[in-house]
Amino acid sequence: MRYALLPILLLCAALTSVGMGVLTLLESNRAALARQFAVDRQAQLDEATRGVSETLEDVGEDLRFAGELLSQPGSDAEHRRELRALLEAVGQYKVIVAYDAEGRERLRLLDRRTGKQVSRGAILPQMAEAARRALQRPPGDITTSPPLGEGQGWLRVMATALPVAKGRPAGAVAVLVDTETFFTPLRIVTSDPEARLLLVGAHDQPTSASDAKLADWYRRLDAEGMLVPGFASMAARMKEGERGTLPLGEDEAERLGLGRAEAVAVFTPIRLRGGNNWAAATLVSTAALRSHEQGLVWRLAGAALLVALFLVTFAVYVVLAQRRAAALRESRRHADQLAHLHDKTQKILDHIPAGVLALTEDGRISAVNQVLRARMPERAVGAPLAAAFPQAPEAVVSRLRALAEAAATEARPHSLLGEPLALFGDEGRFNLHAVPLEARDPDVRTLLVVEDLSNVRALETQLLRAEKLATVGVLAAGIAHEIGTPLGVVRGRAEYVLGKLGSGHPQGPGIAVIIEQIDRVSRTLRQLLDFSRLQPTAVRPVSLGPIVRDVHELLRVEAERRKVSLELDVPDALPTLAADPDQLQQVLVNLALNACDACGPGGRVRLAASGPDGSAAGTWGLVSLTVRDDGCGIPRESLNQVFDPFFTTKKRGQGTGLGLTMVAHVVRNHGGRIELESEPGQGTCVTVLWPATPSAVEERHAS
Predict the structure, then answer these.
(1) Residue from 691, 688, 662 nearest 676 by CA
(2) Angle at Cα 254 formed by Cα 253 and Cα 259, nearest 5°?
(3) Cα gap 290→274, rounded to integer Å
(4) What is the per-residue DSSP string for 484-522?
């Protein structure tokens, strides 16, 4: 044991010697440590301000993009729609206003959540003032306003002039920006309790992100700057746009609220195009550095046990530092992912598809874009307008021809908004715009723009249905809770009376009817509760075959009782589904029961599964589940209502109208789709497109 301790003692002695050497080195290089401390803080501040500068420059890029957009030909409605896309894509934008060359308001778009509240204050006049100042600067330069309003220190107006037309800017565009999230990197830098932040805006005013005491000293520099000479020198260099570091003495640091210790001031500019520069500074007390140094001295001057304790402490510090670094890397990864998604969304919004068709002076088609080319005959170019829409009625083509002729004759755009037209066979909703061009080019005399609104209307319908489902869920839970308890009491009393009277009593059958009706109401309440308390989706790989066979076994007796044939067609080669097995079974049971209800004696119900293209694996990772019957079918006017809560075509008392609603809810929660086809007297086919597990899809594509 003694010999075993000797190497440990020698190691501790060696470590102690090394520690004393390190102590001597630290004492002799204290100034170097302070300089290195300042360099590290400068690097942190530079990294943080680089992110802030990039964020502010993104706002400038958006403004320049909006300016280029407004300078392009197009109607105010088109410009409003594209600016609306920009406003909704960037959550920090609250108001966008476009002005003409005289500074008069041309377009105004408000954020739906806060824009109206903001517009009621004095902000719109300040936006107009910023736009007027922007008109006096070169196009592309960014003009910023001071902080707006009491308690709204994060709101600022940023404006830029539109490209020059006829020797002067064609106008200006201004945006009201909530800049609070822009300066999050600076908050991370000053997360150290010994650090204080001073952030000065383009108008030489401290922002809301600044430390309150530093901001107060900054405002009092003209009167009391001699009390804090280092701070005053830093402020002067910040105003000149310089970058650097300054040491602060103990007395000055204490006056600035940094404690009784020397401090280091690090400052750097945040540059914007056009010279509207911001500046950021961090003032960090060296008290922690000094305390750490003194603690290190005491530890290194102690015995070997204290050296060992220091090593353990250092190891813990390394582990914590690694965890923090991992957390920062993860945060940066998430930030990069969000930035990528933002860029992708922006590009999609910048390329919203609309069909464009060019007409010659004599009404012939000279060119079409990709959107319309995919929906038109191949030889439509060079033919009259009617050749582009061979499935459209003559009356619809006549309206299009008249719209184009009116635009060319009057030399101004003409539009038809939200018109129900059968341009491509089935009737849909369209916005049509006829835009006249220069008469000197007979090959492109008029542009006909076709916007298909069918998908927008479908989305509006889905949103309305989702709102109905949410309302019904809350209502169902309340009704079931308030009615269920009294019903239980009534049923118990009825059973008690029936037990006392006996089944042979004259009133016995009547009481039995009461109990039966209460049970029916209770079943309806249970369905309501099932609907309002739909279990969260916990998906896992599920094989479809066993579940379909279980459904067949569950419903076999019921189908035989109704004299309905229940058939299965599920191939073994199907991939596994990403599903909650109980909820998947619930979907199939509800659809099969509805199909049985629709059939009379001798009817057939068929459950099948395949890919959407007829293969076993499917395309895009979806498997098609179909439930088809040859029953009575659904009237055409009711097809859009069958998934609404409480809508049913069954007789009163035979259904609650919640079955298909629950089916649609479960399918959507799993990321699938549901489609319905029905003809009165011919039967109904319900198709559910259900996602397969990713691993199963990858394996099949690899094979």
Answers:
(1) 688
(2) 95
(3) 43
(4) HHHHHHHHHHHHHHHHHH-TTSTTHHHHHHHHHHHHHHH
329: tokens are: 């890397």
Token code pair at residue 342? 């933002």
pLDDT for the residue 1 = 43
Rg (CA), the chain: 37
**pLDDT value at residue 626:** 92
Q: Could you tell me which residues come within 8 angstroms of residue 311 by beta carbon, excluding any fewer than 6 positions away?
A: 15
Please name the residues in contact with 98: beta carbons below 8 A apart, sequence gap of 6 or more: 66, 70, 79, 83, 105, 106, 107, 108, 171, 172, 173
- Segments of 201-294 assigned E as strands: 244-248, 263-270, 278-285
Between CA 463 and CA 632 the distance in angstroms is 30
Q: In what order do the strands lie in the sheet with 683-691?
A: 565-569, 604-610, 622-629, 683-691, 673-679
Beta carbons of 624 and 446 less than 8 angstroms apart: no
240: its two tokens: 């000149």
The span from the CA of 476 to the CA of 658, in Å, is 11
φ and ψ of 605, to 5 deg: -125, 130
Helical pair 508-532 and 454-501, crossing angle rounded to 10 deg? 150
Residues 53 and 279: their CA atoms lie apart, in Å, by: 10
d(CA 318, CA 600): 76
> Cβ(575)–Cβ(623) under 8 Å?
yes
Strand partners, 270: 278
* Core vs surface per residue 283-300: b (16+ CB within 10 A) or e: bbbbbbbeeeeeeebeeb
Please report where in the chains the tokens 């030489």 appear, as a residue. 204
Containing 355, the helix (H) or strand (E) segment is strand 355-359
**Residues of the chain falling short of pLDDT 70:** 1-16, 18-34, 113-121, 149-153, 273-276, 288-312, 314-319, 342-353, 374, 418, 426-427, 438-441, 453-482, 484-485, 503, 520, 523-537, 611-620, 645-658, 695-703
Task: Please give the pLDDT value at position 119.
Answer: 59
Q: Measure CA 443 to chain center.
A: 44
- Angstrom distance (rounded) from CA 689 to CA 693: 13
> What order do you get walking across the sheet with 171-178 strand by strand?
105-110, 93-100, 171-178, 155-161, 143-144
d(CA 535, CA 675): 23
On whether the pTM is more than 0.85, the answer is no
Q: Give the integer Cα–Cα distance in Å for 69 and 351.
A: 13
**Integer CA distances (angstroms), 668 to 209, 341, 660, in order:** 43, 23, 12
pLDDT value, residue 539: 82
3-state secondary structure of 185: helix
Nearest to 418 by CA among 452, 448, 462: 452
Q: Please measure the distance between the N-terminal and C-terminal CA atoms of the chain and give it in whole angstroms.
A: 65
Amino acid identity of 240? E
Residues in the chain, how many?
703
Residue 487, number of CB atoms within 10 A of its CB: 14
How far is residue 578 from each of residues 23, 289, 572, 573, measured CA to CA in Å?
Answer: 62, 55, 17, 16
**Count of CB atoms within 10 A of residue 110's CB?**
19
SS3 172: strand
